Amino acid sequence: MVDRRSLLKQIGVLGALMSLSVPLNTKPMQESLWGLIMPAENIHPYSVLAEDPTSEAVICWIDDDTEHAGDTQTLLYGTDEDDLDNEVEVEGEEIPAGDGEHLYEVEITELTPDTVYFGEVQCHSGVKSIEIKTFPISLADNDLKILYFSDTHINPGSAGDHMDEPEMIEPLADEDPDLVLCGGDIVTGAREDPEPDDTEEWLRWWTEYWAYFAEGRLPPLIMVPGNHEVDNSSWDGTGSVDPEAGYFQFWFKHPRDLEPTGKNYCEVTIGDYLQILALDTHSEFPDVLADWLEDAINEDVDVALPFHHSPLMTGASRRSGDDDLQELLREEWAPIYHDAGNVYATFSGHIHTRKRTEPWIVVDEEPDSDAFELPGGQYLTVSENSDGIVGFGDGWRDNRGGSDEWFLDDISGDTHFNVIHIDRNSPATMTVEEIDDSGELINSEEYDVEVLGDDDQVGVDLEEEYGSYGKLRTDRVEL
After folding, report:
1. What is the tens place of the pLDDT at every residue in 377-414?
2. Which of 194, 223, 246, 275 stands the most exposed, by the fewest C-beta atoms within 10 Å?
3. Is 307 exposed, middle or buried (0-12, 13-18, 19+ CB in 10 A)?
């Protein structure tokens, strides 16, 4: 697809060249002109979430022209679309088990917060225009829209509840999110060492599915692996793990290069209002990640937002190993979520059903109601006054029935995704929408959020606005 801005620029370049007294009938000149005026259909861009998204961006692209891929390519970028005054040369890396396709990635820094940047990838076949936007330092005059999904299981030739056709992702892209979170199992191939079929599936994802997101402003993506990305389908939380299995790490510079480096999990703090906790349930031991999480979780931002492949609890079951894994995750992670005070919701996948839990809390004494027993004499139970954490899930795909467990608010057979809105204006809120595969709203939940930033940034007097609440957690309102 040729965007209007690129087309106008190409026409302008051609007009300028036509006005010059130079011969245009030589092969080198024809090739040069072709590269300047034609859109580079072989370039497929995406962006992964940067370590500091207010001033940095990570731009990646795939060149699937197997004859020329691998050549050094140029990224131009700037705030004026008619004057891209920054330039960086980028070397490609050949994609494993492919036909010569290459992946390019570059990290750009010292950007201005809350600012739109225009860019162009220049290669032998022409140019590919991109557009990104840095995040604001504060949400005083902004709100944030986050898309969450998992378990698309694109799989050529399959039918039913897979996202088997690229146009099925269009309702997600139409949300035009500021940020995309993915809880894993984009693909179905699950081999430790990549094979051509795995590469074909990933390339199909980037070139046919993600292309819907690349048509407009390119949202940054942060993803964690599911069992199908790291060849660990029967994981119960014990045994052995290999974060380098498959080639999830090949596609995702982050979390790979963020602390703890070489792992498939990380945290990204955005300004003073949001911390993304991208957590790995299938290539790290739950207790090892818990040790990191306890120090990493940021209690000074308004919202800490965890997402991961396996849920902590669900109303459906795949196999006994999943139940064992969920028990370990509850024991290790639930107390950390609860104690942080700024975790209002979690997002997961893996089970293939739409689920929403009741708000849950961790208590130090055995309650009279149903509860999960945790180590150290603690219990996870449903809150009596809605001041707890809600678990949303479990995957875009739906092919498993559920049961009415004591901790569930709702479970049903809806193929779906989530949209999260964070609005810091008084009163500050986080809204979570459950949306079906046609883009229709299923349900919406709103939560009052305790604002922890500076008075000047928020635009309200925090003492006056929130002083009477004490440690406010969640006021849950069904819309």
Report:
1. 999 999 988 789 999 999 998 767 677 899 999 998 88
2. 194
3. buried
| C-alpha to C-alpha distance for 119 and 393, rounded to whole angstroms | 36
Report pLDDT digits (tens) over 17-40.
444 444 444 433 444 444 455 788
pLDDT range class, residue 156, cuts 50, 70, 90: low
Q: How many residues does the chain have?
A: 479
DSSP state, residue 207: I
Q: What are phi and psi of 328, to 5 degrees?
A: -65, -40
The domain defined by 4-133 folds into Immunoglobulin-like (2.60.40)
Question: Domain limits of the chain?
Answer: 4-133, 143-478
CATH 3.40.50.170 fits 143-478, yes or no: no
Residue with tokens 């955005």: 270
- Quote the CA–CA distance of 157 and 152 in Å, as a whole number: 14
Answer yes or no: is pLDDT of 198 > 70. Answer: yes
Contacts of 26 (CB under 8 A, 6+ apart): none
